[in-house]
């Protein structure tokens, strides 16, 4: 595994600036690295295109050179014929979907997986036995052929069932995969045409409007106010401007290339941002395609529950085969014929294999999957249901998962005071002091100096949910003011905008000039917002309590303190100032010229600060606490700034209130970071840059030593390194992600969790689970369900395994003691696949015994699903008691019919002779062969009823593993009673309804035999209560260790 | 540059190249003047003093080395894994350090064995108790239910694994075993024995003996001589030597069975399939061809020790020779069932005679 991984690290989308600066000169060197990697890929993937395509230098070429290179014309576009040729050559412009296992292979896997192979062996042995019989006696009975067919049928039916269940759960997902076919506006044959974007070819000239997805990797030829959301590449949703200028050597950084599947944002300006570009890469050769193909290179790990089930199958199959072979040898050495021995072998295998169990497990898992889907966890892979329960580390995204994924005003500073704004989901409770006149001015600036607008037609949508055209901060401000002031649009209308300088990164402020609605003075109001220190530079006065005061040193200092404090909270701080332009200088008719700047932009009046943050979801802190108490380490992995990340981590409890990082300690003690004893720090904030310089050992050390870790400024690729680090700690790792880039990490993780709303399709494809509400808290409910299902599966398996002994003993006794066969193979199948199915599913509905969220996650290699105590207790305790009880019923029936137990011993040979029709019983009566056979079937039925009655007790005791049944409540799980009823009804039908069908070898049993095993059932219950009592009384004792499963 | 540094420190990820994107936070952080931090980052980056070429060479060298390591690494694990597994297994079987067998110390083993001994002892006690209770409810003299063994089955003698009587009259070897079998069977019916052990009870009525279950019951005589020509007394070959075989028919014993309404059960034989004239005559002994009522009821093996099953002998005096003749002998009488489809031995018996001359 380890040798294969390096290529995954190869595409590393760095979110840091430092490299940009240092590497500017040595572009060549970088490409050498690229080439190296490509060669590596080529070796592995046999895809020569990689090498060629990653040599992306189109951004450096001029338009003319581009035209030449791709044989196209920027004005005319490609000719349709040329496009068709290229399409034929390159294939459609879409990502090759991840390789699906063909349905038939999936089906066949079900047919030979698990116990099926053992049953097939049994079936073939049956046919072989018949073959041997037939060769010596042409009139041999077809019983063995029927049995073989029944076994085959059982395998096929359970296989079909499991396949159907799987298919059903995958179908839920396929709805996600159906994407609306994308259209692209392309210039071909000098005409603008709309074609499905799959048909795009290299060299096409496309036009993309704001709001559209970029249909392929394109080189920007011209653009108007276009900004793209590269979040699917980088994981961060800050828009980035795109223009036709070549700004950077690196194709990923230059502004003139847009990438496939990123989104061109809707701008609030008109005309809407558009971009015209030339397609330079399509389909799998795009950067996204490249990453997606890397993701598919990451092997899917086996889920923990799959490992557990495999382990369990191995145990049971091992027991079955070894007992089978042992008794085959015993039988042969007891001078049984080989043919008979083979038939014993079949019986032993059938008795030992819980045929219905795997189907039951599948049903149980899918029931839980359904339950989880209701709680917004959509499970793609059934087995992932349990994986979540055994999760010990969650690597969570910040944006959207822990936070609400929208900027929200968190604090305000005016009148030398910091006010707290409500950041909860509905914003309803704004409690800060709104009476100050400073607030009135500030609110005016917030309202007016803002280009964001609500999309039309959302009158009935709550304000916080309304869609907005505009960037994140402006949206936050718009909603904030809308909540507090009411109709913002109306206010803006009353204060008509006459001029505006939009925000840009060089001046770092935004300015607009408005008419005022003040009837007394028709003067213009200039409002401005921007980076606080830039704003402060432009101010000469500050407004306090509605009065303008000169800005002196002390006020500047209070400003700085507030600014630093808010900044330290990881919040984005904006400064606001305004100026009423004197009416005499700027009369109503004054024409403002933005380029000439014919208005003052200094000596303004500073009004206040406002800080924004993407606030945590209100449910998250609680969920994180739950994870904590459940022993799950929550690690935040974000591309965000460390300060912001840490602030959010603190507010949601990922870094708990009383723990400190090394830096915190250093700051508190006023010493250098190096001097701090690293053991004192519980928390760590690691940036992507630091991570880059770390060896895997160092990373391991961090992961092992710190309880609370935040990874900030990480590239999505580093997520993979972190996940691997966690897995090296033997942890079961859950990873949340939404971007395309997260997909390798999602795949690598033991359970990848994609975001249902924000997630890209690639992420959803790679994930095992989709969070429909993007909410971290849903993961916690998932964990709870996962743990519950693990416990309940244990119960189900214990329940199912128990009767195996009761089914196996008859064969062993039959071989060794020579009793007439107590239970037939077909009857066993009726128990395994008939009466026991519904009860074992019913155990899936059992409630947790204690607070499962208060214990540590199970250890992958230690807390097995089927452990020794479980097997021993099921087989050697309850199973044996059950066998005894069933034998009691069997002996009762035989004794009352005339065969006392001592007569039965070694009667087998005479009993089974077809020509002996006057076999004497204990009373001297003589029996014909058929009469004996009928009695034998009655014995089967009696044994069956004996097992059935005791399985009811078994079902009841399996409700709990530690608590008394009476603590758990006998009637709380109604489904158990449905199970018990079904068990009895099926038993009654088999005995009395189908008693006359000879092939099934059931007979009508006297009613009283149903009650023979009842005392045994009660004994089983009592014994188990005693066991549980001792476990509760003496935790940690020998008894607890050996008897608690 | 940074990458090279990393590749030296973290040799497990050698082939890294890097795509760099614009800092996504650039716009984001525009408002937040984080020049401080930028400066810091710059400072950290500029620490790398080496010239590029040197590093490139070094990197190449490293890559080669790593490749070698990888190859070596791949070769070993398969063998190692097996060896390790074997070691783990053997350690599991016997751990000399901690003196543990199957992961348990001797003490632990003795404790567990002791506990299991007591557990199974008490289970044995429970099952013994159960069986004891079972025997309390069951009479040793009379079975609780007899419905499975009713209606009575029928068997014939001589019987040697098959119901095909295939013999050649002129070759005694082919029928001698029938004679031996019959002789053996009839030993218990010897007149002297019967007279000594059993009573001569009045024919034509049930021999009912009241009294407690556990009282010994008397049995009625069924003398060998009742069978006349088939008794083997006059003709010790039971007619086999003359091609007129005797076949004895007996009804299975059933405790408490009484033919209905005082009508004795009769036996009648005929050709099962084919020409009815294949059997021209059959003599029955006793001549009534019936089981006399005095042999019923049967009181069970324990008290009815000397009970002798009544017999009906069929003397096939004139049967078609040199061909297989399927014969069906049925019990006839009120309430007698002889047509159960699944059981060909209830109230009837089918056999074939193939007498060669």
Automatic annotation (TrEMBL), chain A:
Entries under Pfam families matching the protein: Cation_ATPase (PF13246), Cation_ATPase_C (PF00689), Cation_ATPase_N (PF00690), E1-E2_ATPase (PF00122), Hydrolase_3 (PF08282)
GO CC terms in record: actin cytoskeleton; apical plasma membrane; cytosol; plasma membrane
Source domain of life: Eukaryota
Transmembrane segments: 112-133, 145-164, 312-336, 342-365, 866-891, 976-995, 1007-1023
Classification via SUPFAM superfamilies: Calcium ATPase, transduction domain A, Calcium ATPase, transmembrane domain M, HAD-like, Metal cation-transporting ATPase, ATP-binding domain N
Residue ranges of every copy of the Cation-transporting P-type ATPase N-terminal domain listed in the record: 57-131
Its membrane topology: Multi-pass membrane protein
Family under the similarity heading: Belongs to the cation transport ATPase (P-type) (TC 3.A.3) family. Type IIC subfamily.
Classification via PANTHER family: POTASSIUM-TRANSPORTING ATPASE ALPHA CHAIN 2 (PTHR43294:SF1), SODIUM/POTASSIUM-TRANSPORTING ATPASE SUBUNIT ALPHA (PTHR43294)
UniProt name for this protein: Sodium/potassium-transporting ATPase subunit alpha
Annotated source species: Gorilla gorilla gorilla (Western lowland gorilla)
From TrEMBL, chain B:
Pfam families according to UniProt: Na_K-ATPase (PF00287)
Lipid bilayer topology: Single-pass type II membrane protein
Keyword Ligase: no
Region annotation Disordered: where it falls in the sequence: 15-80
Predominant location: membrane
Gene3D superfamilies linked to this entry: Na, k-atpase alpha subunit
Transmembrane segments: 108-135
InterPro entries noted in UniProt: Na/K_ATPase_sub_beta, Na/K_ATPase_sub_beta_sf
Localization (cell): Membrane; Nucleus inner membrane
PROSITE patterns: ATPASE_NA_K_BETA_1 (PS00390), ATPASE_NA_K_BETA_2 (PS00391)
GO BP terms in the entry: potassium ion transport; regulation of DNA-templated transcription; sodium ion transport
Tree of life domain: Eukaryota
Compositional bias of kind Acidic residues: 52-73
Keyword terms of this UniProt record: Ion transport, Membrane, Signal-anchor, Transmembrane, Transmembrane helix, Transport
Cellular component GO terms held in the UniProt record: nuclear inner membrane; sodium:potassium-exchanging ATPase complex
Family listed: Belongs to the X(+)/potassium ATPases subunit beta family.
Function: This is the non-catalytic component of the active enzyme, which catalyzes the hydrolysis of ATP coupled with the exchange of Na(+) and K(+) ions across the plasma membrane.
Entry protein name: Sodium/potassium-transporting ATPase subunit beta
